[in-house]
Amino acid sequence: MRASMLATILKRSTTSSFLLRRSYHSSESQPERKVTVLGAAGGIGQPLALLMKLNPLVSKLALYDIAATPGVAADISHINTRSLVNGYMGDEQLGEALEGSDVVIIPAGVPRKPGMTRDDLFNINAGIVKGLCTAIAKYCPNAVINMISNPVNSTVPIAAEVFKKAGTYDKKKLFGVTTLDVVRAKTFYAGKVKVNVADVDVPVVGGHAGITILPLFSQATPKGSNLSDEEITALTKRTQDGGTEVVNAKAGKGSATLSMAYAGAVFADACLKGLNGVPDIVECSYVQSTITDLPFFASKVRLGKNGVEEVLGLGNLTDFEKQGLENLKSELKSSIDKGIEFANA
């Protein structure tokens, strides 16, 4: 392939197709925005840091981890995009990494391995999240927080309790990133009904583990061929078990790191657009909510300059979805309570 042709292809791929052609605005008129990734040297953190470096809404990119971050930062810093990159390593540099952050993304923690549930990660990742959120409350209390560290059903309540103790809690600025469930639901739905995946929208509500993940395929757009009850059940099950599918396919050598990094970048981009005043930014996320009797719940959320502008309702549900909603509540409540108890121990 001639060099000029390769250059043209690469240019097109990075300018028009990045993040499935999600619209970006020129960086020339955008405000300064600092994004910090906590856990930036890990399996999710590295590709997520790369994707955030490609986002023109980011002016400063801080990469933090307990080890190896200077190398990751040096590597990514050579990419010719807007943001200035700095790497930070160890407890003594955590404060500097966080200071002045507008958005903090947290993929820190250990990944799932074959046979592990997200709850198996709790004892390790819960402590990591609690420590990081204590630092966030001190150094960037007004930042928007994007929680990726699993189990999200518990780590978001942990973060909320830490921030409450510090007197910095803002329910509008704490998000559990459930975007990967939406990404999977869109992909699986598009493949089944034979529509362009780039045009698909599927709300996913509930939580971010197993049966707490409830894709609302009855509300999916565009409508393709009618799905049978068996097909909807199978699509729902595959969406719920998507993480396990990847863990098993990697045969002990990792979890869903690349797709999670993509999903994390999509949601962070939405938060940045909201902060910048772009109208009608709606994504599903796990937030403090009153649309059910559970204190935290994932649903469509309208994003804006203050974080959450509006938590949107569930819409009309089928009998299958109503049953799924009832089935998930007990497990989700247990995970929420577990996080709250851990934070207050």
Structure summarized in a few sentences:
This protein is an alpha/beta fold and 345 residues long. The protein has helices at residues 3-15, 18-21, 45-53, 69-77, 94-98, 122-139, 152-166, 179-193, 229-240, 242-249, 257-275, 319-344; strands at 34-38, 60-65, 84-89, 103-106, 144-147, 174-176, 204-206, 213-215, 281-288, 296-304, 307-311.
Structure notes:
InterPro entries: L-lactate/malate_DH, Lactate/malate_DH_C, Lactate/malate_DH_N, Lactate_DH/Glyco_Ohase_4_C, Malate_DH_AS, Malate_DH_type1, NAD(P)-bd_dom_sf. NAD(+) binds at residues 39-45, 65, 125, 148-150, 260. The protein is 44% helix and 16% strand. By secondary structure, the chain is α/β, with parallel strands linked by helices. Strands 3-2-1-4-5-6 form a six-stranded parallel beta sheet, sandwiched between helices. The termini are far apart. The model is unreliable at 1-25 (pLDDT under 50).
